[in-house]
Amino acid sequence: MRTSIFKTDNVFFKHYFKIYDIRGFKLKITAALLLLLFLYSVFFPAPSNYLLSLRAKYRLFSVDRLYDYTVPLLAALMTAFAFFNDYKNQTYRFLGYYHPGPFNRPMVYRWAIIVFLFCIGSFVSAGFYYRNVSFFGLTGFFLSVRFLPNIVFLSALMLCVTALTKNSYAGLFVTLVYYILDLFSEGRLFKLFSMGANAANFYYAISPEYYLFNRLLLCLAAGCFLGLACYQRR
Amino acid sequence: MGNRLSIENVSFSYGKNTVLDNISFTCRDGITALLGNNGAGKTTLMNILTGLNKPSHGRVMLNGIDLLKTKPYPIDQVGYLPQNFDVYGNVTGYDLLSYVFDLKKIKKNKKETIDEVVERFHLTSVINKRIGKYSGGYKRRLGIAQAVIGKPTLLIIDEPTAGLDPEERAQFRKYLSEISKDSITLISTHIIEDVELYSQQIVILKDHSIAFNGSVAEMIAESITNIRTLETDFAALMDLRKKVTIIEEKRLGTDRYRIRFIKDKQDVAGSYQEKEISLENAYIYFQNR
After folding, report:
1. B240 and B172 belong to one structural domain
2. What is the pLDDT of residue A45?
3. Which of residues 92-111 of B touch A (CB under 8 A)?
4. Same domain, B25 and B149
5. Using a CB-CB distance cutoff of 8 angstroms, which residues of chain B are in contact with residue A94?
6. Which residues lie across from B230 on neighbouring strands?
């Protein structure tokens, strides 16, 4: 049984560029977006007094908005793009039949490929963006890694709503409503479920525990969203 | 000996709404047509047979094996063509068949097997083109090709000719009659013409349960004695519409009509039983009796 599942997974990866991402088109778009992000980070780095401002409890939306909000939005939009045709002509039904079992594993893999690329891209370019604060040190590592829950969370939300409603537009609508409300309320509306924990300086302005709990909660919520999206109700 | 599919006491509900109520029937090699009006539960039954829905009660046995308890669901033994078959428009027909071949884990030469189905369903001219450029007929043919690849024991085809023009429909029916020789082919439809020529067995679903199960000849024989024909004028026709269930009206000339209706306890004067009726008449009878 286990061997059988892995064989099916091998089939998925073998045909990935012929069925799900013809000639790597989606991969190329993702790479192009991440390259633009990298170039922006190289040419417009964060100011060197960034950490001092944070400790002084300033909310640094203009500095952190790029990685707190823009990059996760791009990842969520790529997720919507990757799954758009699944729900346009009920292709999901046909594909679901060929992937029996409680979880639609190809769906998880397709989502994970996009999210993994955005996480890597975000981590590397954030390293350059905050280079005036810390470059390739432990502080630099934490400055870069703290944005990853946002990417995972927003793209999982997009996938979950799309899969549950069987409608890509519903996924886009719900995700964008959440995104806009959270962005314009500067993290005040969704509090623990806000993506703006870095930009709104939850760590110093509220407490380190609150900040860490927010990051953890986003990761847990992403896991739940992914489970709901890929669970096949049979 | 042939193959045998046995659907035993299958029920399905959405919350408090019963969609299928204790459905049982058996079918063998050849075409079994599942007829019923929209909402009768045909697609739900198809989804249960393909493992996409879990029944609240009952079991489905294919050659003695419980189909729904087999983990993972045996996609190599069951070919499925969904109602609105469509895949990504930029995938070529060949790549799709190749993917399905690998997913079904068919232990044969891949190229030979794919070439065989491509030739069989006359897809040679389009097989390397993107599916988005296929006509409705070609898309349907590709759909049936992916279902039969690997020669499954059971073929489940939902609304096979929906959206096809008359010529394509006739062609598609021929394909179905060919592929059903060595497999149980279960088709769901509400188009009577789809089943008239080639179906060995007809199952009619009505009000979530089975209203008829038998051959075309048995279906006509059972309904013909309950159907009456009458030639009448317009005024009488208007009056009859209120009294009996009319299943067919035909204009014969100015103010002259021939109607067929379901016989009630009291016979209508001048009406008679015909020697032949269409399958459509029989179907409407079972839906209205």
Report:
1. no
2. 95
3. 95-96, 98-100, 102-103, 105
4. yes
5. 82, 85-87
6. B259
Domain extents in chain A: 16-230
Lookup: tokens for A128: 């350059």
What pLDDT is attached to residue A4? 57
pLDDT at B37 over 60: yes
Boundaries of domain holding B226: 221-288
More confident: A164 or A136: A164
Question: Residues of B with CB below 8 A from A22's CB?
Answer: 88, 90-91
Per-residue pLDDT, A26: 95
Cis peptide before B72 (omega within 30 of 0): yes
The mean pLDDT value of chain A amounts to: 92
Which tokens belong to B1? 């000996």
Answer yes or no: do B103 and B147 share one domain: yes
Element (H, E) at A42: helix A25-43
Mean pLDDT value across residues A87-96: 86
ipTM tops 0.90? no
Q: What is the mean pLDDT of chain B?
A: 90
Q: Are residues B198 and B55 in the same domain?
A: yes
For residue B72, what is the domain's CATH number? 3.40.50.300
Q: Burial level of A53, CB count in 10 A (0-12/13-18/19+)?
A: middle
Chain A interface includes B255 (CB < 8 A) = no
A–B: how many Cβ contacts below 8 A? 69
- The domain boundary, picked from B215, B233, B251, lies at B215
What's the pTM value of the predicted model, to 2 decimals?
A: 0.87
Residue numbers of A between 105 and 164 with CB closer than 8 Å to B: none
Q: Which residue of A has its CA nearest to B55?
A: A234
* CA dihedral sign of residues B185, B191, B197, B199: positive
Which one of B172, B199, B215 terminates a domain?
Answer: B215
- Confidence band of A3 (pLDDT split at 50, 70, 90): low
Q: Does B82 sit within 8 Å of A93, measured CB to CB?
A: yes
Contact A5 B72 (CB under 8 A): yes
